[in-house]
UniProtKB/TrEMBL annotation:
It comes from the Bacteria. Coiled coil: none annotated. This is PadR family transcriptional regulator. It comes from Luedemannella flava. Residues 7-79 form the Transcription regulator PadR N-terminal domain.
Length: 174
């Protein structure tokens, strides 16, 4: 997830204060990982430095004055480019899961036990996502489906890898 580009996209929709940007980010994109206020303002500072946003009107707030940020043409062009370029297909061939299996085998550690533990962790997460779908909004459902499909793929890979562990162990211990 690109926080700067996402914030720029939210600003293209409408000029906003940092607080409003954080709220909208957390609502639509932060599921389980809310964006810290410090990161919002640090990112806005970098975007302003790079000429992608400017400060608009400054109004009074409960605490310090509230700065309203406005996207520039340069920022809007970057959002447009980002939205029209395809995302690199995932997963990449070299993942943490794969690396742990190969290293476990190289070090003569119980890779099968690791994979079974990982399977249990994936299944637990799948149950959490399924529960989210039951009581969530359409956005929750769409995000949960995306996660579930990736987890299902990982589980198929785990099963295939367990079936091939002896052969893989011979390959990596050469």
């Amino acid at each position: 997830m690109s926080v700067p580009l996402t914030l720029l996209g939210l600003l293209e929709r409408e000029p906003s204060h940092g607080y409003d940007l954080k709220r909208d980010y957390d609502t639509y994109f932060g599921r389980g990982r809310p964006l810290p206020f410090g990161q919002v303002y640090a990112t806005l500072g970098r975007l302003a430095r790079d000429g992608k946003v400017v400060m608009g009107e400054v109004g009074p707030g409960v605490g310090p004055d509230r700065k309203r940020y406005v996207i520039t043409d340069k920022g809007a062009t970057e959002v447009d480019t980002w939205l029209t370029e395809p995302v690199e297909p995932e997963p990449h061939l070299q993942t943490v899961l794969f690396s742990k299996v190969v290293l476990s085998l190289m070090l003569d550690r119980p890779a099968g036990e690791y994979l079974n533990t990982q399977r249990a962790t994936h299944l637990k997460r799948m149950r959490e996502l399924t529960e989210l779908k039951r009581g969530g909004t359409l956005i929750d459902v769409m995000l949960a489906d995306h996660g579930l499909f990736h987890l299902e793929s990982d589980l198929r890979w785990i099963d295939v890898t367990i079936a091939r562990l002896d052969a893989l162990a011979k390959e990596v211990r050469k």
